[in-house]
Amino acid sequence: MLAGIITLDGKMKLQDGRRCMSIRMEKNEVVETVLHLLSMVFGMSEEELEIVPRTQEGARVRIYDAGRIDQIFQTLKLTELDDRLDVDDIVISKSCCRTAFLRGAFLASGSVANPETQYQLEIVTDRDTVTRQVLTAMAAFGAEGHVTERRYSQVVYLKEADGISETLGQLGAVNAMMQFENIRIVKGIRNNINREVNCDTANITKTANAAIKQIEEIRRIESTVGLSALPANLRELAVVRLENPDLSLKELGEMMDPPLGKSGVNHRLRKISEYAARPELLR
After folding, report:
1. What are 11's strand-pairing partners?
2. How far apart are CA 188 and CA 23, in angstroms?
3. What is the spatial distance between Cα 230 and Cα 272, in angstroms, rounded to a whole number?
4. Which stretches within the chain are classed as H helix?
5. Among 178, 169, 170, which Cα is nearest to 115's?
6. Segments of the chain scoring below 70 in pLDDT
7. What end-to-end distance do the CA atoms of the chain give, in Å?
8. Is there a smaller number of Cβ atoms within 10 Å at the N or the C end of the chain?
9. Burial class (CB in 10 A: 0-12, 13-18, 19+), 230
10. Alpha helices in 110-173 (DSSP H)
C-alpha cells in the first residue's frame, strides 16, 4: 500500500542542498495513512520527518536520512527513474499485494464520480509502468480498466457499475461501496419507471393518433356517400368510434354485438380506411 502511494506521490529531490524523498499528498487522510504506515513498517517517528502542510489541505512529507531512504527503497522494491520512483513488479506478484498496491494508488490519485450523474472510477498516473501495474491489479479481480490520455497524464478508468462496485469493495471502501450501490439501485428504479412512463406515453400517443385518423376517415365517408352506405358491421363500428373517440381497440370490440377481439376491430377499421380512400366503391 505504501509502495502504491509513494510510486504516484513520491519523488527524489534536492531540498536545500540535501537529497530527500518527498511525498506530496493532497488529502489529510492520506497524510495520516502514510505517517501510520511509515511508523508501522519502518518504526519511523514524526520527529524523523519534515511535514510541510499545504495551503488548503494535505501536506508534503520529506525524509532526509540516507539510511532510512535506503531501507524504504529495499523494502518497497523501489527504483529511481529521473526524480520519479518506480516499483518492481514483484510487489504485485500476489493477489493480496496487488490489492494493497491498488489501494495505495487510489488513495494517491484516485477518484469516483458522483454516481447520480455518471459511473466512473479513475486513477491518474504519469507513466506507462504504473499504468500497466494498476491495470494488472484491477484485472486480478475481474475489473477491466481502460486507459485514456489527459494532458501530460494517463488515466486508468472504469465505467462499468459492477466493476466500480467490486473495486471499491476490494479496496476496503465498504461504506463508499454501499453508498454507491444504494444510489445505483435508486437510479435503476427511477430509470425503469421513466422507461415505463415513456412507453405508456408513446402508446397513448399512438392510440390517440390512430383514433384521430379513424374518425377523419369515417367523417370523409359520412360527408361523401353517408354512413348508411357502409355494410352493417362496418357502420356499427363507425358509429361507436365517432361516439367514443378515446376508446382503445379492445374497448371498441367489447361494445360490438357480438363482441369482437382487437384483431377483428382492426380488420374492420382497415376496411373503413379503404372505403374512405375510395368512397365510390360504396355507391
Report:
1. 22, 84
2. 41
3. 8
4. 2-9, 28-42, 66-76, 95-109, 128-139, 161-170, 174-224, 232-243, 249-254, 262-277
5. 178
6. none
7. 90
8. C
9. buried
10. 128-139, 161-170
| pLDDT at res. 141 | 85
85 SS3 class? strand
Residue reference for cell 518504526: 43
CA–CA separation, 118 and 106 (whole Å): 19
Positive or negative, the CA dihedral 94, 99, 102, 108 is negative
Q: Residue 155: which H helix or E strand, with range?
A: strand 153-158
Rounded to an integer, what is the distance from CA 213 to the centroid of its chain?
A: 43
Calpha distance 100→82 (Å, rounded)? 25
The angle subtended at Cα 193 by Cα 191 and Cα 199, nearest 5°, is: 100
> For 67-110, how does the pLDDT look when each residue is reduced to its tens digit (9 = 90+)?
999 999 999 999 988 878 999 999 888 888 999 999 999 999 99
pTM above 0.85, yes or no: no
Element containing residue 80 per DSSP (H, E)? strand 78-81
Whole-number pLDDT of residue 100: 93
The rounded distance, in Å, linking the Cα atoms of 95 and 102 is 11
Sheet holding 110-112, edge to edge: 110-112, 121-125, 153-158, 146-150
CB atoms within 10 A of CB 82: 7
> Are 23 and 5 within 8 A, CB to CB?
yes
